Amino acid sequence: MSDIAESDDRISAEGSRDLKRSLNRALRAQKMRALMLIAPLLIFILVTFIAPIVDMLFRSVENEIVSDTLPRTVLALDDWEYTSGETPSEAVFAALYYDLFVAAELKEHTRLGSRLNYETTGISSLFRKSGRRVDRFDTDIYADQFTALDPAWGEPATWTMMSEALDDDPDALPETASALEGWHHLLKVERDDPATEAPADILFTALYRDLSAGAPGLNDGDLAAMTATARQAVDGFETVSIRDQFVDVDDSWLDPEIWGTIKAYAPKYTIGYFLKSVDYQLTPEGIEKQPEDQQIYIRLFVRTLVMSLTIMVSCIVLGYPVAFLLANLPMRYSNVLMILVLLPFWTSLLVRTSAWKVLLQNQGVINDILVWLHIVSESGRLALINNQTGTIIAMTHILLPFMILPLYSVMQTIPPTYMRAAKSLGATDWTAFWRVYFPQSVPGIGAGSILVFILAIGYYITPELVGGTSGIFISNRIAYHISSSLNWGLAAALGSILLVAVLMLYWAYDRIVGIDNVKLG
Amino acid sequence: MQKSDDAFVVFDRVQKSYDGENLVVKDLNLSIGKGEFVTMLGPSGSGKTTCLMMLAGFESATNGEILLDGTNINNVPPHKRGIGMVFQNYALFPHMTVGENLSFPLEVRKMGKSERETKVKHALDMVQMGAFANRRPAQMSGGQQQRIALARALVFDPELVLMDEPLGALDKQLREHMQFEIKALHERLGITVVYVTHDQGEALTMSDRVAVFNDGRIQQLAPPDDLYERPQNSFVAQFIGENNKIPGKVESLDEARGICQIRLGSGELIEATAVNIRKVGQDTLVSIRPERVEFDPERMAPDWYLIDAEVIDVVYMGDIYRTVLRVAGTDDFVMKTRNTLGAEKLPRGQKIKIGWHPEDARALNPI
Questions:
Q1: Are B292 and B360 in contact (CB under 8 A)?
Q2: Please, are residues A78 and A101 in contact by the beta-carbon 8 Å criterion?
Q3: How far apart are CA A25 and CA A6, in angstroms?
Q4: Could you tell me which residues are beta bridge partners of residue B66?
Q5: Among A168, A399, B23, B248, which is 20 to 30 Å from A103 by CA?
Q6: Backbone angles phi, psi at A188, to 5 degrees
Q7: pLDDT for the residue A479
Q8: Residues of chain A with pLDDT under 50
Q9: Which segments within B201-266 are labelled E, that is strand?
Q10: Residue B225 pLDDT more than 70?
């Protein structure tokens, strides 16, 4: 006994450090084991769920395609203003020529065309057409004139040397350096040898433009001499306007609108998709509201919210009494009832939705019965499907179990003695229910509502099948952009907005009701 | 069963069946006077809680009448009976504060705000919980919740309060303290209390009368001391307190003096008080309380009957020694002796003679 009394419970500072260390060591093994256990699921979720979502969210702002495909044009357009109302200078057309030449060889121009077509219709075909013609531009006269001057210009080796020389001093012949870079990029992608490939027209065009514009030129080596000779000769060269070449293909190239669009979407990241998601657009003039007849997304978002709320409320109204019965009936009855509640889960969603089609259509079961009962006339059959009513009816039915189950599990934990206590204190059945039972079932309503609302807001298949045009949700539009229009950026932006809206509602719910008050059982 | 005029609560030939086949309560007759503290005591499933629920109105009587203050209340819904009730797990409304809980019965009675506040405060002071009006039930200990439940059952001044094992969830010390407080409140307010418990100690210390339930019937209805000292049948003798039972046969019966002679299984003939003995020759169980058994010759009167015993085991229990003996063929005979100064543990195997006053040996029905 005295041993116990005299032992010292305090541990010295050093001892305490040791203790912490050994405790950490002991806990680390436990943590590692726990981590190992969840690792397969964690990796699975990360790879198949989190990563794609992050990638999708990133797509809503990502816009590298323009600057990747037309790097020189984007740079050249820096000096051009849409507001000037003029077509860009010859230098911009030359840059576009180099870019488009490389892109057309690599077949990248059509993708860019489709991308820009989302913003201004017609760009897709413009790019396609120009890409087909760009290697047949009349710029071959420069190649002819240079090789006539000195056949060495036609040798691939000359251009290899040129490339090496310009690597050290790109400012000597800036456009040539830029065109060579594109040319080499092209050869590299196509796995061609620069030493054997005949030089393309863009190189001669760039060289001509450099020399005629008075670029400093190279200082030493054989090439210096060659370029010096050429510089003397270019003034006498026959010339061709690149701008005219493009206009020859399509005179849309004179339209500042086209150039404005390219410039507006030149940055690597754009808010264009998000603007479009809220019925605005990024035009060359700046941010503008979409024309009246194209404003659909805000209306769709609002409709999705309102209809999800309606479905949620119908689920509460229909589900609460059922859950109450489930929780309060004797076991043998409640089991049967529970099976009836769960039965829909065992039937395919598509089958259930199709069943509603049969029931609700104009010549369907419900309308037939109503006509037979003379509640509605033969001509006044109710439109119950392919509109909002259809969506609400079918989705309420489908989501009802998600309301009933959390409600039931919460109600099950409310002991019947509370109601008895209330009655013994003098409350009528209704007062006892409303003042005592109902407040305690609110967490269940909260849990069910969150579940139903969040499921409803992202629902896709049912609105698609029974919603017609007036009953579809924003998710149907997202699906359209994913699978039909292939405008993934816009789909990602719409999805992001939906996600943020749900998170905000969740946050608001937490502030008002408190997420701790949500019980699933 | 006679109905006294001042009977406040009357069960008259009440029966209850849940499934239409078995009776949970069989022919219950019980009359409770105004201001009385009556406890329904019995093992679980004995029908005591069902009786309480019928009185509260949560169960309906299958047969018979329940009268409250002279009126039949069989068809009166619970909220119109005006009976206060304390539940086993308190049933305090978790979403209301203590004050709101207490205010609830007054609100449903459409009482004015100021009157409500006065009454709530008064009720809380009564259970010494005045400072807790703004707490939630979950923030309080079991004992505190118990007090609040009590206050809530009393706040609307009911004349009858039902308590369904209200102290079951408390630890021993707190339970004993609350027993004392409930008893004190009962005496101070003059209310009628019907109390249900399976804890005999609770029943004995608190009640004016105890109704021992078994198998849907009242086995005995009597004040605590009567119940303990003069059990009317073997079940009550067994259920209340510790009890030695020796089987035997009735040899002779003196009905005038209420005394009979019993031949034990081992052949000895002992004298006992005849309680429910009908005729000579019937089987009987003789019941003797362990603390009424003596072995010290100095404390025994000369006319006491002595019987041979052998010590099997002695357990030291602080205030007493609990000695297990082999007596008349049974080896679970218990004798309790006070641990007085100089008292010694009897060695195992020692042969002794034990005795008791004939009045303490009660010949009861065999089980």
A1: yes
A2: no
A3: 30
A4: B11
A5: A168
A6: -65, -45
A7: 92
A8: 1-7
A9: 209-214, 217-222, 244-254, 259-264
A10: yes
- List the one residue out of A147, A209, A151, A154 whose CA is nearest residue A177: A209
Q: What is the CATH number of the domain that holds A332?
A: 1.10.3720.10
Contact B315, B321 (CB under 8 A): yes
Cα B194 to Cα B164: distance, rounded to the nearest angstrom: 9
- Rounded Cα gap, residues A88 and A80, in angstroms: 6
Instruction: Give the three-state DSSP class for B247.
Output: strand
Q: What is the mean pLDDT of residues B229-258?
A: 87
In contact, A438 and A397? CB cutoff 8 Å: no
Nearest to B340 by CA among B288, B287, B298, B289: B298
Q: Give the CATH number of domain B242-364.
A: 2.40.50.140
**Is residue B2's pLDDT more than 50?**
no
On whether residue A285 sits in a domain, the answer given is: no
Amino acid identity at B276? N
Q: Residue A327: which domain range? A: 297-517
Structure tokens at B335: 């004798």
Q: What is the pLDDT of residues B26-49, one digit of tens each?
A: 889 999 999 999 999 998 888 898
A209 and A301 fall within a common domain = no
For residue A63, what are the CA distances in angstroms to A267, A280, A490?
A: 7, 18, 11
What's the pLDDT score for residue A154? 87
Contact in structure between A94 and A133 (CB atoms under 8 Å): no
CA distance to A22, A28, B23, per residue, from A33 (Å): 17, 8, 58
Domain extent listing, chain B: 7-235, 242-364
B88 and A421: CB-CB below 8 Å? no
Q: Which residues of B touch A (CB under 8 A)?
A: 56-58, 77-85, 87-89, 91, 93-95, 104-105, 108-109, 152-153, 156, 162
Let me know if residue A351 belongs to a domain.
yes
Residue B10: strand, helix, or coil: strand
Q: Note whether A425 contacts B: Cβ–Cβ < 8 A.
A: yes
Asked whether the domain spanning B242-364 has the same topology as the one spanning B7-235, the reply is: no
Q: Residue A439 contacts by C-beta under 8 Å, 6 or more apart in sequence?
A: B95
Paired strand residues for B214: B217
C-alpha to C-alpha distance for B226 and B204, rounded to whole angstroms:
10
Give me chain B's average pLDDT, please.
88
Transcribe A138-190 into DSSP letters. Answer: TTHHHHHHHHHH-GGGG-HHHHHHHHHHHHH-GGGSHHHHHHHHHHHHHHHHH
Which of these three, A234, A257, A284, is where a domain ends? A234
- Same domain membership, residue A193 and residue A52: no
Chain centre distance of CA A179? 34
By C-alpha distance, which of A120, A121, A123, A183 is closest to A156?
Answer: A183
**Running DSSP on this structure, what letter comes out for residue B210?**
E
Contact B299, B280 (CB under 8 A): no
> How many distinct structural domains can be found in chain A?
3
Of A418, A423, A435, nearest to B79 by CB-CB distance is A423
- pLDDT tens for B72-107 read 999 999 999 999 999 988 899 999 999 999 999 999
Task: Look up tokens 């020692």; give the residue.
Answer: B350
Mark yes or no for CB contact B91/A426 under 8 Å. Answer: no
Cβ–Cβ contact A420 with B under 8 A:
yes
**Angle CA(A327)–CA(A325)–CA(B87) in degrees, nearest 5?**
50
Helix (H) or strand (E) holding B117, with range, is: helix B113-126
Whole-number pLDDT of residue B344: 77
In this prediction the pTM is 0.78
Q: Helix, strand or coil for residue B6? A: coil
What value does the mean pLDDT take over residues B269-291? 86
**B7-235 CATH pick, 3.40.50.970, 3.90.1300.10, 3.40.50.300, 3.40.50.720:** 3.40.50.300
Which residues of chain B lie closer than 8 angstroms to A432, CB-CB?
Answer: 79
Query: Strands B37-41, B23-33: parallel, antiparallel or unpaired by DSSP?
Result: unpaired
Determine contact, residues B187/B35, Cβ cutoff 8 Å.
no
